[in-house]
């Protein structure tokens, strides 16, 4: 990779900041200029040695960039294209990091920027936001979906793929229509399902809220993403409404079909439904990051005695293992252990498993 590249960033939040940090980690000689609406964010990025040049919103520095990453909200990115189209070098590639691609690709086409645009969507994230929570490893082993404009030269696409690969991510080239359909199915639909499932329990609960009381463990796991930002998912549903509606149609058909099987006590169809889902689910790879952030948790069987949790927490702390969350599971019908411990990454989870197993604790990982 050339060390003289000049890369610009519009926005330095969690994703933009993480990409910028990854670039500096692997290619310290690359020159980065950036603009952020928050001045303190730019100052911090400069202080950390991530950003070389602070920019204003419409700064001449962007005219010299080889790549420009648009990392602001979708509507802001589209608005920014209006200025960029007249202020980029002939060989500049503009890219974005949005989770929906159709809207920005249509704007790119209307502005005759098809030969300059490669849509991007790193399949990585966190419940945390902002530059302060950005890391230089957030996109490692994550699929990085690329949706090139219709007039992108293959050599320029290849060069951008090599840059993404050099950051530890896994580039995957799709049309923007394919991207929006796939993410509607594997990311947007699950969030809608989780939200409606939580709302259904809320609506059906008894006056004593017994459903809420016992909805621990598995229920909280499968509905975890319902705690995501309502504003963000409202925007995604509006931006990708056609594809989301398409996958919802198929999901509703499957739900109605399942209801018919239950109503008719169709033993074989019910069994086949669970067997097929189990087989497909077990075939999903564990090695790479996917559309939804992975949870790193273990389940530990312990006696209900004074100091039991404190002993485990102390053991982990003595081995420099940070705990993200810890709690007792009172509903053990489908759980492997009474104590659920969640960690920040896979390395900490595996290390905790070994530390506790070596002390003869019964551990299950999920």
Can you describe this structure?
Helix 5 (154-166) links the parallel strand 7 (143-148) and strand 8. It contains 13 helices and twelve strands. 30% of the residues are buried. Helix 3 (74-84) packs parallel to helix 4. It has helices at 14-26, 39-47, 74-84, 102-110, 154-166, 176-204, 210-214, 218-222, 230-239, 241-263, 267-282, 308-318, 346-358, and strands spanning 6-10, 31-35, 53-54, 67-70, 93-96, 117-122, 143-148, 170-173, 296-301, 323-328, 339-343, 362-365. The longest helix is centred in the middle third of the chain and has 29 residues, at 176-204. The chain is globular and about 65 Å long. The model has no long low-confidence stretch (mean pLDDT 89). The protein is α/β, with parallel strands linked by helices and 366 residues long. The strands form two sheets. It has an eight-stranded mixed beta sheet, sandwiched between helices.
As laid out across the biggest beta sheet, the strand order is 3-2-1-4-5-6-7-8
Strand share of the residues? 15-25%
Mean pLDDT: 89
Number of helices: 13
- The Rg value, from CA coordinates, equals 23 Å
SSE string? EHEHEEHEHEEHEHHHHHHEHEEHE
The global form is globular
**Beta strands, count:** 12
Instruction: Name the poorly predicted regions.
Output: none
Q: Which properties best describe this structure?
A:
four-stranded antiparallel beta sheet; 366 residues; eight-stranded mixed beta sheet; 13 helices; alpha/beta; globular; 46% helix
């Amino acid at each position: 990779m050339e060390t003289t590249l000049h890369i610009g960033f519009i926005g330095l939040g969690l994703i933009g900041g993480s990409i910028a940090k990854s670039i500096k980690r692997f290619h310290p000689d690359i020159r980065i200029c950036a603009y952020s609406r928050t001045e303190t964010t730019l100052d911090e990025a400069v202080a950390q040695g991530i950003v070389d040049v602070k920019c204003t919103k419409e700064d001449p520095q962007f005219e010299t960039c080889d790549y420009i990453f648009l990392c602001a909200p979708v509507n802001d990115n589209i608005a920014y294209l209006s200025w960029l189209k007249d202020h980029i070098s002939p060989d500049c590639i503009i890219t974005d990091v949005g989770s929906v691609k159709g809207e920005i690709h249509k704007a790119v086409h209307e502005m005759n920027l098809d030969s300059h645009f490669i849509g991007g969507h790193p399949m990585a994230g966190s419940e945390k936001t902002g530059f302060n929570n950005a890391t230089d490893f957030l996109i490692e082993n994550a699929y990085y979906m690329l949706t090139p404009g219709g007039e992108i030269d293959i050599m320029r696409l290849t060069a951008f793929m090599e840059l993404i690969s050099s950051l530890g991510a896994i580039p995957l080239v799709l049309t923007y229509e394919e991207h929006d359909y796939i993410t509607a199915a594997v990311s947007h639909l699950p969030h809608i399902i989780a939200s409606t499932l939580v709302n259904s329990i809320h609506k059906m609960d008894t006056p004593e809220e017994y459903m809420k009381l016992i909805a621990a463990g598995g229920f909280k796991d499968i509905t975890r993403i319902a705690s995501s930002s309502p504003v963000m998912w409202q925007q995604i549903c509006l931006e990708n409404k056609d594809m989301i509606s398409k996958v919802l149609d198929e999901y509703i058909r499957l739900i109605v079909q399942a209801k018919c099987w239950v109503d008719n006590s169709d033993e074989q169809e019910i069994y086949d439904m669970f067997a097929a889902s189990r087989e497909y689910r077990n075939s999903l790879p564990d090695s790479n990051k996917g559309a939804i952030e992975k949870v790193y948790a273990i389940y530990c069987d312990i006696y209900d005695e004074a100091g039991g949790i404190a002993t485990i927490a102390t053991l982990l702390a003595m081995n420099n293992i940070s705990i993200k969350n810890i709690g007792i599971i009172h509903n053990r019908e489908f759980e492997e252990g009474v104590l659920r411990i969640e960690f920040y990454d896979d390395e900490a989870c595996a290390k905790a498993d070994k530390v506790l197993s070596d002390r003869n604790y019964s551990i299950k990982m999920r």
